[in-house]
Amino acid sequence: MSQNDLITPLESATRPRLTFKQIINMSFGFFGIQFGFALQNANVSRIFQTLGAEIDKIGFLWIAAPVTGLLVQPIIGYLSDRTWHPRWGRRRPFFFIGALLSSIALFLMPQSSVLWMAATLLWVLDASINISMEPFRAFVGDKLPSSQRTTGFATQTFFIGLGAVIASLLPYIFTNWFGISNTAPAGIISDSVKYSFYIGAVVFLASVLWTVFTTDEFPPENIDNWEKEKLRTKGLMHGIVEITTGIFKMPKTMLQLAVVQFFTWIAFFAMWIYTTSGIAQNSFGTTDTTSKAYQDAGDWVGVMFMVYNGVSAITAFLLPMLAKKIGRRATHFIALIIGGIGLVSMLFITDQNMLLLPMIGVGLAWSSTLTMPYAILAGALPANKMGFYMGVFNFFVVIPQIVAAAILGFFVKTFFNEQAIYALVIGGISMIIAGFLNFIVTDTDDTIK
User: Fold this and answer.
1) Eight-state DSSP code of residue 317
2) Is 222 helix (H, G, I), strand (E, B) or coil?
3) Number of structural domains found in the chain
């Protein structure tokens, strides 16, 4: 038996088509994952600045997120490819472990009293989210035939958008609907943010458990041979060698998509880090983190993020329809161009209500980014290494984030007089470049058709 036979789920051609309810159940865990991820994206910079972080240092504090993804995802992908339990399956043990750890981190994050504590908890939170999230991408490739994969990733995108909409709005809802304070003394995180994270901890765990207990998985085709091969290749060094060599044997389509992803994720990371400070300064006229104007800006950024995630949820099932007519590459091109223009336009908008318009374009780009690259990639990967390569593909999500964390603060301070809004302009230009780079990508499934 060759190494490629180690874990072979049912081949794509023989996988049964799933009902829409089954696709919903297997994707629902992403609602909770993105609930936690959205709370992180919309509020961590706010927490860092509340605890005393300087504007040009925020990027370095955020570097925890991409670095943990860089380390965790390929390892989790490799391990989940080599895991099988008659009750828990292949991917679901990792869903559960990651959800449990993420929920603990979400509960502790808003209790941070000093900057180093919040920065450490970001490492823990992001690593835990990655443990749950990475196998979800491979889950679609495992369970769905090629004809349903775009629908599978689109369903994930819908739940990603829905979870993020609610999570992004929570601080605003607590303050404006229930009168819970969004201000606090210097160095203290407001109650509206704290309660949002507590709810996020519960939702994260409950949503993932729904998928764990309502979904089954395909076993290896020949379980006896699989067990023997697993024992033969057991060991830390063998795993390290296989991961390393696998990285240098990536399919051509994966390398092409990597370039697109690089410029795309510089844009999104710039948005997550600098939108709160940029909008507070450019539209609310303040840099004072203890002021009500700054906290109102933070709440409004939650509303802005709600809009882009809501658009993502709505368009999740529309983009696959467009892709059937013009192809996945062209669909992704259009979405990224519109999203990039949206980010750049925020430099020129000071009215807070008008700031919601660019987020529509960003939401379209986000929806496409969570669907099209993965649908293209799944058709180009060997079935027995789906989890591993989905983990490696995350390199091209996290490496640009590391680059962005390293350089954006320098650019904002050195060239733009600490006006954080220009980080969003840089991100928008990067996203437009990513859009044009789609034309170098080969979509294997489209070629076959």
Assistant:
1) T
2) coil
3) 1
Confirm whether 7 is domain-assigned: no
Nearest to 129 by CA among 102, 163, 153: 102
Dihedral sign from CA coordinates of 238, 243, 246, 251: positive
Span 164-197, pLDDT tens digits: 889 988 888 998 898 888 887 777 888 989 999 9
Rounded to whole angstroms, the Cα distance separating 63 from 122 reads: 9
The CA R_g of the chain, rounded to the nearest whole Å, is 21
CA–centroid distance for 94 within its chain:
17
CA distance 269 to 267: 6
Q: What is the DSSP letter of 304?
A: H
Q: 227 lies in which domain range?
A: 16-448
Residues whose CB falls within 8 Å of the CB of residue 49, separated by 6 or more in sequence, listed in order: 55, 58, 276, 277, 289
Give phi and psi for 89, each to the nearest 5: 80, -150
143-169 pLDDT tens trace: 887 778 778 878 888 888 888 889 988
Q: Is residue 398 part of a domain?
A: yes
**Contact yes or no for 299/171 (Cβ under 8 A):** yes
Ranges of beta strands (E only) in 181-320 are none
Query: Burial of 161 by CB count in 10 Å (0-12 exposed, 13-18 middle, 19+ buried)?
Result: buried
- In whole angstroms, what is the distance from residue 22 CA to residue 27 CA? 9
Angle at 402 between CA 416 and CA 279, to 5 degrees: 40
Alpha-carbon distance 422 to 337, whole Å? 18
The single-letter code of the amino acid at 202 is V
Closest by Cα among 139, 171, 150 to 29: 139
